[in-house]
Amino acid sequence: MAPLARVRARSLLPALALIVGCAGDREVRQRMTPPEVSGSLPGTEDTSPGPGEADGALNGGETETELVSVRPGVNDKYFEAGAAEEWSELLEHDGRDVFEHREAIVAAMALEPGMTVADIGAGTGAFLTTLSAPLGPEGKLYAVDIAPPFLEHLRGRVADEGLSNVEVVEGTTTETGLPPGSVDVLFVCDVYHHIEYPSAYLRSLHETLRPGGRLVIVEFDKVPGKTSKRMMKHVRQDKATLLAEVGAEGFSLVEEITSVPLSENYMLVFTR
């Protein structure tokens, strides 16, 4: 090696040592971080904030994605004792738009025997019987909820009504609680405005759905002059916001179903 080349080589050694040392530190951190926390290899994760998320600082100037609720406490009332009985009267009566048209809503979904369907935010079970019937004994309906009073109520209904193809599943505010690629149709009815962490939960929905599967969302409209003042205040997002949030997490809009005569709601079908 020429003298000049040796000098340049020696000058690079400290920098190379620093790079190798940093890589070693990352390996140590990776080995010490539980898989459920790390999620992906250090330096490869997407740390850009999405809807409902913000950046949080870590030691050493690194960043991680921090979940931020878009509606803090929106579901607290469902965790109270006696909530299921109280809300059964409010959610299951013919004056409620989606309950009155539940048969037409399910018919428009074109469910077939043997399908696997998930009722996300099943609540008091207003759609249990209507959704489970077309699936047949070889099909499966997952009734998913996060509130213990509702979960207990749902299990009671399943037993009392002999719904052998229905399984009650406890989810969380960020995950469905279902295996990846396990569902043909996800049904989210009057629930979207109760999702505290839209980006995280939509990613879980996307993961739960089989390739080519459908996400059916029935949601309250939010149109000034048309929507009641109570619902304008209660519902977080309008249709345009919902479409943007769902589309951002990998879903494609297939159609808006207008054959069901809903007066307060709209019905959208997406695919992954």
TrEMBL record:
<protein>
    <recommendedName>
        <fullName>Methyltransferase type 12 domain-containing protein</fullName>
    </recommendedName>
</protein>
<dbReference type="InterPro" id="IPR029063">
    <property type="entry name" value="SAM-dependent_MTases_sf"/>
</dbReference>
<dbReference type="InterPro" id="IPR013217">
    <property type="entry name" value="Methyltransf_12"/>
</dbReference>
<dbReference type="Pfam" id="PF08242">
    <property type="entry name" value="Methyltransf_12"/>
</dbReference>
<feature type="region of interest" description="Disordered">
    <location>
        <begin position="29"/>
        <end position="64"/>
    </location>
</feature>
<feature type="domain" description="Methyltransferase type 12">
    <location>
        <begin position="119"/>
        <end position="215"/>
    </location>
</feature>
